[in-house]
């Protein structure tokens, strides 16, 4: 599974990238706003830290506008930036056009297996089903991941990767791993939680305590 970080905070990206396991970064207008920085400036800096796919989202609602913004982003930003497009009819048309030009895309705000399949047919590199937002409505977001992965298994021609998004906690990531999702994008907090375990901490404390005694005996 690919591990993506969902943030526009470059300090968080530097931290997680230093672990050696960061495969990419997703951003959106809300995350850019939270960073308080210029959109292109922050995306360019992120792309310099992580050499994997960096999602930069268009804000136009019409196909022509999406294509215009996408082409501008590809011209102005590093090569590893990919274009994030909403799952709308206009977005599918833009995805199809960009795919024909060899430009990678991430179709976002996917809430059904049918939407995911349509995005795949349009040639999306990634589709991003939003787990947490479905949970917020009182339904089980993981059912959507299961539905999409089942659909993918029926159609071997699909090359689009399933990028689980709106992840809220480590259990979401574990369930995505078990269902075979290709990618998970998560906040830095979830990355840290995935690495944390009290038994690991306890074991290290015991090892270091014993090693201190060994060193003390050697100096005696």
In short:
With 220 residues, the protein is an alpha/beta fold.
Alpha-carbon distance between the two ends: 50 Å
The main sheet orders its strands as 1-2-3-4-5-6-7-8
Order of helices and strands: EHEHHEHEHEHEHHEHEHH
Number of strands: 8
CATH topology: TIM Barrel
Largest sheet descriptor: 8 strands, parallel, barrel
Number of individual domains: 1
Overall description:
By secondary structure, this protein is of the alpha/beta class. Helix 8 (141-154) packs parallel to helix 9 (170-179). An eight-stranded parallel beta barrel has the order 1-2-3-4-5-6-7-8, surrounded by six helices. It has helices spanning 10-17, 29-35, 39-49, 63-76, 89-100, 113-121, 131-136, 141-154, 170-179, 188-195, 198-219, and strands at residues 2-6, 24-26, 54-57, 81-86, 105-110, 126-129, 161-164, 183-186. Helix 4 links the parallel strand 3 and strand 4 (81-86). The protein has one domain (2-219): TIM Barrel (Alpha-Beta Barrel). It contains eleven helices and eight strands.
Which properties best describe this structure?
220 residues; alpha/beta; TIM Barrel; eight-stranded parallel beta barrel; 11 helices; 16% strand
Q: Could you give the topology of this structure?
A:
Blueprint: E1 2-6, H1 10-17, E2 24-26, H2 29-35, H3 39-49, E3 54-57, H4 63-76, E4 81-86, H5 89-100, E5 105-110, H6 113-121, E6 126-129, H7 131-136, H8 141-154, E7 161-164, H9 170-179, E8 183-186, H10 188-195, H11 198-219
